[in-house]
Design goal:
The structure is a single chain. The chain is built from 12 helices and 11 strands. The chain has 386 residues and is α/β, with parallel strands linked by helices. The strands form 3 sheets. A 7-stranded parallel β-sheet has the order 1-5-6-7-9-10-11. A two-stranded antiparallel sheet has the order 2-4. Strands 3-8 form a two-stranded antiparallel sheet. Helix 11 links the parallel strand 10 and strand 11. The protein is globular. The N terminus is likely disordered.
């Protein structure tokens, strides 16, 4: 088990990486969708992305975060870097999921799909994140974070019976093809000196929620615990690829692992505490920082954190990125103290529970509210970890 502890380098204030897209970027993306061959529109879009990435990097530094992301401004959603780099998906088709309103009132917003259905053998035609990394490293004054989707994200939502099984015999075969692609990207990012690589793994919430455990049995025709074991093996291989890469002298990559219960347009799809998977997951996956949702009662108690191996950091997602209502800093600090019953305080950190824009449309709050939430995270972290 890897024992290096990197929390002192990244600090106790964290965030998940994605930010609300400025309207001008959304408008340019819409123009490009209507005229995909337009060099002029593509050039305009890249210029808008560059300008706004500089702006959000500066804002992160102003708020005191020790690393920076580009807000995922060059993506349509948190996993589109994979879809844009790998052929074989029919993005006009998608497997739907049951979403629930995340505290918003009124009409439930339209939820966009994050992937399509695999219709032919996957073929990678470019790196997943190289187009993001160069500008981010050249612009950020310090450490940078790059996010990647877990390979386990895809089999549940990109495999369709009667279509995908014509090219992949089952979800397992599809999964391990995707693992090889993610492994190569993880290793490349570590070798290039990226300080912080975060894997986003929403599908682990399936093993927490009785509704989705039953869906695994009926739709995937497998036992949930068998799928969980396979998922842990897959993600473990990806983390090992980054850990074993030859890194620049004097640098060490921090590996983050984020568990999500859905975050599309302020909505969610799963609930349940971490009890069912904590011991196996925490001990099998060689992650330095565990970014866990704890923003409401759907997440259960802090008690499963007692299974966390020594030296790891638990990033408590106590601030909602779904709702515009501001949390109370004193209440957040008290919840950190509650978690410290199970994890030493110096091995805890604070963040929003998820990103602000897992899809380009973003969650149902304003950019001003987004920055206020992140200021709350930073200010509370400074007060708690004096």
């Amino acid at each position: 088990m890897h024992e290096t502890y990197h929390a002192d380098r990244l600090g106790h204030a964290d965030h998940l990486g994605s930010f609300l897209r400025p309207p001008e970027i959304l408008a340019a993306r819409q123009r490009l969708a209507e005229d995909p061959d337009s060099v002029q529109v593509l050039t305009e879009l890249h210029a808008l992305e560059d300008r706004n990435i500089r702006r959000v990097i500066a804002k992160q530094q102003e708020l005191g975060f020790r690393f920076a992301t580009d807000g995922e401004f060059r993506r349509n959603n948190f996993m589109s870097d994979f879809l844009d780099a790998v052929d074989g998906f029919d993005t006009a088709d998608a497997v739907t999921r049951d979403w629930h309103a995340g505290g918003s009132k009124g009409d439930v917003p339209q939820v966009s799909s994050v992937t399509g259905v695999v219709t032919r053998k996957l073929s990678q035609h470019r790196r997943l994140t190289a187009h993001e990394l160069g500008f981010l490293k050249a612009t950020a004054p310090g450490a940078v974070k790059i996010t990647l989707p877990s390979a386990t994200q895809f089999p549940a939502i990109a495999f369709k019976d009667g279509i995908t099984d014509k090219v992949y015999k089952d979800r397992t075969e599809l999964l391990w093809d995707i693992v090889e692609i993610i492994k190569k990207e993880m290793a490349a990012l570590a070798a290039e000196g990226v300080s912080y690589i975060q894997m986003d793994a929403p599908r682990y919430s399936y093993y927490l929620d009785p509704k989705w455990r039953e869906w695994i049995r009926t739709e995937m025709r497998r036992e949930p615990d068998a799928i969980l074991a396979e998922s842990l093996r897959a993600d473990s291989e990806c983390l090992k690829a980054a850990r074993n890469a030859v890194q620049p002298a004097g640098q060490a990559v921090t590996l983050g692992f984020h568990l999500c219960r859905g975050n599309n347009r302020s909505q969610w799809y799963a609930q349940g505490g971490y009890h069912a998977i904590a011991e196996k997951m925490f001990n099998m996956l060689d992650a330095d920082r565990w970014l866990l949702e704890y923003d409401d009662e759907r997440s259960g108690s802090f008690e499963p954190l007692r299974h966390m191996p020594r030296g790891r950091t638990v990033v408590l997602g106590l601030v909602s990125s779904k709702r515009p209502q501001m949390e109370d800093s004193a209440t957040v600090a008290r919840r950190i103290d509650e978690a410290a019953r199970f994890i030493p305080l110096e091995h805890l950190a604070l963040s929003p529970q998820c990103g602000f824009a897992s899809t380009a449309e973003g969650n149902l709050l304003t950019e001003e509210e987004q920055w206020s939430k992140l200021k709350l995270v930073s200010d509370t972290a400074r007060a708690v970890w004096k």
